[in-house]
Specification:
Elements: E1 24-31, E2 41-48, E3 53-58, H1 64-71, E4 79-84, E5 87-88, H2 94-100, E6 101-104, H3 115-120, H4 128-137, H5 141-145, H6 164-178, E7 182-186, H7 194-207, E8 212-217, E9 228-233, E10 236-241, H8 243-248, H9 252-268
Parallel strand pairs: 3-8, 3-9, 6-7, 7-8
Antiparallel strand pairs: 1-2, 1-4, 4-5, 9-10
Helix pairs in contact: 4-6, 6-7
Bound molecules: adenosine-5'-triphosphate and magnesium ion.
Magnesium ion binds next to helix 1.
């Protein structure tokens, strides 16, 4: 889980939470980190209806994690509005906001305990059937079933006995089990090799079908599956729309795509002289 970077203002008398968080709406929203001159997020807008999936992409430092922090009320905004089911988010208790909006972070914390206990953090008292269903959707069930200790397998300190991909899948299973109305995934595939990252992205897009999701990523693989892609550059939205539309025109996403294809070609050896390719 993400730690709060700076204390946020909590309402003295919190408003009653709405029955439903939809629509969840951000408009004209700007946020700045403590001690920074520049807005990390500038004039941002987003509307999430139930079941809508949006990907937020952009280079390092473009404001993607800042958006996650704003959505979870870990960071106050300077201008603009953030409404959850019609109620301004800052009138709600922060924990109440985080019952509506959950985060699966890139370095999601795993505890030095069993697979079962790590999952149960998300849902106290969940039975093995529920745990197995979450693992199945995160494509980790076959692995767990193949282990002598199954759900009782110890993951090690910070999940050190798991591969990077398994750690991320366990974090994803936990987030699915928690069943947040809105799920924010911040770079779930970071630090994984390309093939593992792309397989994880495919699986998580399958697992979040029909669920309101904000997928933050710097990689474009698989994004044709989401409803809308928002491209950030230095905190500003420079392009947005369905992936196919953005990929078809000359613009920021197309340039990202071309850079990605070049890098992938170098990393996978495609396009290299045959005597170098392995
Ligand atoms: N805690 C912080 N204190 C001060 N500045 C910060 C803090 N966190 C982020 N920033 C700044 O805000 C801007 C946006 O950062 P952010 O972490 O949102 O980018 P990002 O798109 O998530 O990048 P990455 O792809 O590297 O994760 C950057 O200029 C960054 O330096
Ligand atoms: Mg980030």
């Amino acid at each position: 889980m993400l730690d709060a970077p700076v204390p946020v203002r909590e309402p003295e008398t919190p408003a009653a939470p709405p029955a439903s968080p939809f629509p969840l709406e951000l408009a004209g929203l700007s946020a700045r980190h403590a001690g920074q001159e520049r807005h990390a997020l500038d004039g941002f807008a987003l509307t999430l209806e139930a079941g809508r999936r949006v990907a937020v992409v952009g280079a390092s430092g473009s404001g993607k994690t800042t958006l996650a922090q704003v959505l979870l009320r870990f960071l106050d905004v300077e201008h603009g509005t953030y409404r959850i089911g019609g109620v301004p988010a800052w009138e709600l208790d922060g924990d109440e906001v985080r019952r509506f909006v959950g985060l699966c972070a890139q370095d999601a914390h795993l505890f030095d305990s069993s697979v079962r206990e790590n999952l149960r953090l998300a849902k106290v008292g969940a039975d093995d059937e529920e745990l197995r269903e979450a693992l199945r959707r995160a494509r980790l069930l076959d692995w767990v079933d193949g282990l002598p200790a199954g759900l009782d397998t110890l993951v090690g300190e910070h999940g050190s006995r798991l591969s990077g991909g398994q750690r991320q899948r366990l974090a994803l299973a936990r987030a699915l089990l928690a069943d947040f109305p809105v799920l924010v995934l911040d770079e779930p595939a970071e630090h994984l090799d390309l093939a593992t990252a792309d397989a994880l992205t495919d699986d998580l897009l399958r697992a979040t079908e029909g669920r309101t999701t904000v997928l933050i990523t710097h990689r474009l693989h698989g994004l044709d599956a989401v409803d809308e892609v928002v491209v950030l550059d230095e905190g500003r939205t420079v392009q947005r729309g369905p992936y196919a539309e953005l990929a078809a025109v000359d613009g920021p996403l197309r340039r990202m795509l071309e850079r990605e294809e070049e890098t992938d070609a170098l990393l996978t050896g495609a396009g290299r002289p045959t005597f170098l390719a392995k």
